[in-house]
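User: Predict the structure for this protein chain, please.
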Amino acid sequence: MRIINLFLLCLSTFVIHAQDIEGYWQLNSPLLANYQAYYDFYENNRFVYRPGLYNGLCRVFAISGKYEIKGDSIYFTVSYIDECVGGSIKRRSTSADKRSEMELYWITSEKFDYRPIPSTSNYWELTNYKTQRITFENPGTWSASFRHYKDPEQEFIEIDKDKFYYIPGCDEFGEQEE
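Assistant: Here is the predicted structure, written as structure tokens:
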């Protein structure tokens, strides 16, 4: 029975090579707002990549530019970087609940990994910094392997074998009752 279910799952999941990937794609989890790294792809082939927010010492907020999908590859041309400049380092309060921070999980479904989300910066964080955008005179282009999967339950893309799950926008949830 397990083999039949696996076969049916493989049949129902298919790979899409089209460029219809506009939207918000979050690393390792389809749960909204868990502060993992994510890509935002726009219909004019622009993209923004933001690293995870669990590292309070990270000075890079985002890289952005253009993307193009060709076959099983995606090509990123990075034109800008948004980063924080200056500021000071601060130690978070020792009263913060470190244990609960370390026990956040990727997802609560039994289909997925239950590894804790790491906090790479422990209790350290940057404060009082300024944000600046740096424009590259000669944008660089990098390629990565690319796959787009869609099945009845979820949609995700793989970029160099890292899974990024599609997070629907507000307009995709339908009308809300008051």
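The domain at 14-96+122-169 is CATH 2.40.128 (Lipocalin).
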